[in-house]
Amino acid sequence: MSTAVMDAPPAEAKATALPRLGSPAPPFEADTTHGTLRLDDFKGGWLILFSHPADFTPVCTTEFVAFAKIAPELKKRNVELLGLSIDSTFSHIAWVRNIEEKFGVKIPFPVIADLNKEVATLYGMIMPGESKTETSRAVFVIDDKGIVRAMVYYPLTTGRNIEEFLRLIDALQTSDTHGVATPANWRPGEKVIVPPPRTVEGADARMKENYERKDWYFSQKSL
C-alpha cells in the first residue's frame, strides 16, 4: 500500500509559528525607508513594530501623525518605532513626504516595504477575514532582550489609541524595574500592585506587612 498520503506532513505543520507573549520575536531582514534593517539592529533597546493597512489612506495617516508625535517620548524610554505595510518603498517615501507637506509632521521612523508579505506572515499581521491584501492594525512591543511583551490588534476601520502604547511601555518598564504589576488605567506616579503571595504562610505574613491592603491578595504601594 502506498504511504504517500500517510507520510505527508499535516497541514498545520506547514504553518508559520506566530509570536507568543514571553517568547523571542521572530527575526527578520527587510527593506525600509531607512535602508535594509534587521530585528537585531534594535538589540539592546525596545521596539514597537506596527503594521498599517495601506499608504495614502486617511485612518493610517492619522496614526502615523500620532506615532510621530510620541516618538520623542518613546526615545526617552529607549524605544524605537518601526512601521510596516504591503506597499513598496517608493510608495512609503511618497506618503511620508506627503504627510510632511500636508500635515506639517515629519515621520522620523523607518517603514518596512513588505511586498512579499514575509514579515507580515511571520508576525500574523494579515487577517484574511478582513482583508487578504492588507495588513491589520497590529502592534508588537519587543523588549531590549528581543522578547515579545505585548501584542495588540485593531480592525481596519478603527484608528489606534496611540497614547496607550506610551502608557503600556511605562507599565512594562515599571514592572521590570520594581517587580510589581500595574492596575487598570495606571499612569506613572500612581500606586502599583504588589504581587500576591502564593502560599498560605505567605498570605498570613502579608496581613502583617506594611502595604495599603484590601485583603491578602490585593495590596498596593507607592514607588
Task: Explain what the structure shows.
With 223 residues, the chain is α+β, with helices and mostly antiparallel strands. Helix content is 32%, strand content 22%. It is built from seven helices and ten strands. The protein has helices at residues 4-7, 11-14, 58-76, 89-103, 118-122, 162-178, 200-206, and strands spanning 29-32, 35-38, 46-51, 79-85, 111-113, 137-142, 148-154, 192-194, 212-215, 218-221. The strands form three sheets. A five-stranded mixed beta sheet has the order 5-4-3-6-7, covered by helices on one side. The protein has a three-stranded antiparallel beta sheet with strand order 8-10-9, with no helix packed on it. A two-stranded antiparallel ribbon has the order 1-2. A hairpin with a 2-residue loop joins strand 1 (29-32) and strand 2.
List the helices and strands and how they pair.
Blueprint: H1 4-7, H2 11-14, E1 29-32, E2 35-38, E3 46-51, H3 58-76, E4 79-85, H4 89-103, E5 111-113, H5 118-122, E6 137-142, E7 148-154, H6 162-178, E8 192-194, H7 200-206, E9 212-215, E10 218-221
Parallel strand pairs: 3-4, 4-5
Antiparallel strand pairs: 1-2, 3-6, 6-7, 8-10, 9-10
Helix pairs in contact: 3-6
Summary tags:
alpha+beta, Antioxidant, Horf6, Chain A, domain 2, disordered N terminus, Glutaredoxin, 32% helix, five-stranded mixed sheet, 22% strand, 223 residues
**Total DSSP E strands:** 10
| Domain unit count | 2
Number of helices: 7
Strand proportion, as a percent range, falls in 15-25%
